[in-house]
Fold:
Amino acid sequence: MKDQIEVGLRELRASIKRMGELLEWRKLREQEERSDVPPSFQFQDGLEADVKIEEGAFWKSVFEIQDVLGETNNEASEKWRKRLAGLEQEMRELTTKE
Structure:
């Protein structure tokens, strides 16, 4: 179980990184659309879908980890809960400042 939770938390960290990258692409696309100069390259059409999929996968993983943590109550699980809460907050801040 310990290994599963650690892997899950690392995956959440990676998901936050991917979300940040997707949101940066969104900003670049919006800047290109506002420009008077034709875009220098074509953006992928699925960017918005990718953002929604990444966010959905993140929250699904959060709920799965919470389920596992709900079955335990020790010092390690409290540490994991704090890390999980921090990752949740990072994702909220990332997605609300867009």
User: Anything to note?
Assistant: The mean pLDDT is 89.
